[in-house]
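hey can u run this one w/ FE2/S2 (inorganic) cluster bound, need the structure tokens asap thx
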Amino acid sequence: MKCRRCKEPAVIELRRHNAAFCSPCFLHHCREQVRRCIDEFKMIEPGSRVLVAVSGGKDSLGLWDLLIDLGYDVDGLYLGLGIGSYSDASGDMTRRFAATRGGHLVEVDLPADFGFDVPTAAQVTRRVPCSACGLSKRHLFNSAAVDGGYDVVATGHNLDDEAAVLFGNVLRWNTDYLGRQAPVLPGRDGFVRKVKPLVRLGEREMAAYCVLRGIDYIVEECPNAVGNKHLGYKEALNAIEEQSPGSKAAFYFEFLDKASHLFTPAADAERADLTPCPSCGSPTTGDVCAFCRLVDRVRVGR
Ligand code: AMP
Ligand code: FES
Ligand code: ZN
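ok here u go:
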């Protein structure tokens, strides 16, 4: 197998692109995919300050690395969720990367800053941990960005993640979620713009990217995610991709091209009237925002 660009021996084959690359050309390919994605979806304007949310996994650490190399003014944000040894390991991995690359890391810690962790919130609310976790992440990504004066929040969602979410939403025709599947969610009224610059790269590409760049990342999934629906959708899509390379990308990008606009009115309507939360100032449709209600519930519940 020879590299498509330089004809040297290849180290990775990408069937979806009908191509193989040597190590330097593969790294170039990854940078190009991210650069094109940012351009195409107008994700980051020149001079913007970017905050990349990093979990210590391959996607978000790889993304931070790529954004630094592409010349963006980018800092990292790590959220301590208090999920036992998993959180300890992800925090260590993130701090180590920041130190090696000389990146500035903003840290928010649920237990230290808000007095509870994800497992406790799950117990008190009697819901799955991912529910309190997702709510906390959405809230704290935005508030950390607003507090730090950042223009954009970037997350490490890749093509496999986005195709799996789309698959789940289409299976149940969750029209309001389908309206929010775009790789860019514009900022407004106290919400900072959110972008997913890795949607042109798959899981396997990100793992290879980190290995070839010598980036140490946490391999384990969150213990609460094991066996969830999302992972099942990924497996189903992988089986289809194996039979027919390119299906995953076609499924996601053709949706964006041909159908996503049909669902945006539903999503827009839901974002209609926002007022500042009286407790924390974050934009909310209700009175007190969902995150502050969660903080209160956990305090009272214990
Ligand atoms: P997940 O929701 O775990 O699939 O993660 C999706 C994206 O959210 C990751 O690629 C990161 O950008 C971000 N993220 C997840 N966990 C954290 C965390 N603990 N701190 C900061 N960012 C995170
Ligand atoms: Fe949120 Fe596992 S519960 S990452
Ligand atoms: Zn609030």
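The mean pLDDT is 95. anyway lmk if its weird
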